[in-house]
Amino acid sequence: MWAASCLASCCASCTCGLCTSAVAGISNRSARIAYCGLFGLSLIISWILREVAAPLLEKIPWINTYTHTPSKEWFQTNAVLRVSLGNFIFFVVFALMMIGVKDRNDKRDAWHHGGWTAKIVVWALLIVLMFFLPNIVITIYETLSKFGSGLFLLVQVVILLDFVHTWNDAWVEKDEQKWYIALLAVSVVCYLAAFSFSGVLFIWFNPSGHDCGLNIFIIVMSIILAFGFGIIALHPQVNGSLLPASVISVYSMYLCYSGLSSEPRDYECNGLHKHSKAVSTGTLVLGMLTTVLSVLYSAVRAGSSTTFLSPPSSPKSGSRRPLIGSNEIEEGNEEKKEKEGSRVSYSYTFFHLIFALASMYSAMLLTGWTSSTSGSSELIDVGWTSVWVRICTEWATAVLYIWTLVAPLILPDREFS
Question: What global pTM score does this model have?
Fold first, then answer.
């Protein structure tokens, strides 16, 4: 009955053995990459336990408390959630510890960047301890994860909006004809890609001989949104640009595809998987890799975002406003450089919070949002819950983007940067 705990202990031991030799070389600059590596490792462990831990968990009395043993899928979901909970607690604790860190002289700055041997040991112990918790705790965490995953998806959307606006502003500020031509070219290519892909979606998810009204509605809505983005962005009263509109259109079309491709394999309108009988190892690896890259990019991008993560004292925050008068520059120059050099460049608390939410999100992906309708335990992110999470994220993206365009008109007295 100790089999699952032993398996988790072995995974933790391997983790410590592989990572200890590298922790000494982790610098302040590479700390964020190290956190990403730790998070990525947790996903690999989740995936391994998802595949092999079910028979072991059945033998643990405080996990298998049922008169009739649950299905294999239930134990797979339980294993993934326990690893996710350990990862979640690890990053939440660090998020709470880092509240209020504003400069590098704070003792907690060293905790954030250093002590990697201790961090790895604590992280591994947390994951092992999760397998000793009663099922009720995991059930509560499962429910909370659905809400936390929704927050993570919204953060992803806001990060994307921040990225495309920064990209557009950077090219516009160059104020050269070649950069304006580049903006137009990229915008046209993105729109052509979005509308061409919508035609492919009609072929894949509206097979002849079936009534696929739901899929048609979702695809048509995506096309309407793409048109709407461009029309609103180019309106004379809106301070918009075609580049963000085109990029958001491509992203919305991707979310549409991602949602429709998550439909159950036996659904008659899912023509993409209609004739496939099995999932190859390559397909699973590609799906897992895509998930990992998406989650890690969001965390790293969040760690660099001046919009959300720069604390009030950060030099990135309010950099457009002069801090001292011209007559004070000479006498205060050295003091200002010293203070700015000691300030943190991003919010450590929000950085760890992103990873905590990402832990919830990755657990939902690996378990099909804990839905038993996916049809196969081998599939990742399949089921009607996954479909509607993706589609609602697309619509939320549209609402947020349109709001960034029309907010200055609706609230003219407020300043929007």
Answer: 0.73
